[in-house]
User: Fold this.
Amino acid sequence: MKLIERFRRIPMQKRPTATIRVMAEPPEIPAEATAPVAPAPAPAPQNPKYLRVSPLVIGIYLFTVLSAVLYTVSLLSPAFADFFNRYISSAIRATTATLTGWIPFSLAETVLLFSPVILVSLIVYAVRFRCDSWRAVFVYIVDILALVAFLLSLFVWSFGIAYQGTTLDQKLSLDRRDVSVEELEETARILLAEVNRTAAEVDFRPQDFSVMPYSLAELNGKLLEAYRRVDDELPFLQTLNSRLKPVINSELMSHAHITGVYTYFTGEANLNMVFPDYTIPYTAAHELAHQRGIAREDEANFVAFLVCMASDDPYIQYSGYLNMFEYVGAALSGASSERYQAIFAELDRQVLYEEISYSEFYAKYRHSKVSHVSNAVNDTYLKLQGTPGAQSYGMVVDLAVAYYKQNR
Assistant:
């Protein structure tokens, strides 16, 4: 008890208690007072190089002026155009064809497909990085137009001047003139005999199209060999190992009535693979003729015909003869429907089925709205090059008639 009593007498030491910080009331702020505003960051200074036209762009415009001068000279001198096409343009065409030849697909088609993406990218790039002032906008537009100017100059140097050279009938010493109905009929009968002869060595589906018996790559090799065979007859053609390019969007090309196209800026001979087999060898030979400097459409058609005839492959020969027969037949039909019908009826039965099948195939594309636009653009382009326009394709008939008159 005492001990307890003693313990009780010991004064209790106060233990430290936890402290709580109470938030003080904020001081009263006068109504007119405002918080200080941080100054806005200063805009990044415009890159000085975007405010002036670069030496490269100036060089491109000077190059364009030189190209215009050369083109003007070619208009005045076919001899100059021939020289330029054979020794300078040919080197550029060979370079572009070689650079793109290792690519298995059409580079030109790829660029066209991605053109919307490229356009949007250029706009976004301009807004974000280039166009902070009106001066910068002006310089950017000048830069873009320089690209257009370069492509136009490349056209002149690689292909455009070829339109102004000596005509093919002069190079081959053909007596090209207006043809009579009798001459058309005679030429059509010569071609009829060759079509029927070669058709005997061609495979056909029952009452349908003929069948090309090899791949596009094999056709490519056979046509290159055929081009080598005409070196003596056509010495103005450059020797070139090039690659035919199948177009993925061939269906769209069909709606545009395009069977093939040579793109000068990539050096590629592009083919529509939807069209019937019998059109492909002749079309391929036509585009390869462009690639070798034959610019005018009627002349490319005729060179393709000569190359197909020179081939040792019966299907390529058949393609050349039948396509030329169609051109001559169309001209004869316009001059004398009765004579044309009489000759058409003499076609081999399998070839008749080929023609009927082609008519049925073409019917779905005949009135395509896309074709009206593409035909108008192509006609305008050809007229700008000094040709009669889209009708120049059919002018190959004059060359065929003159050729057979000379080689009876």
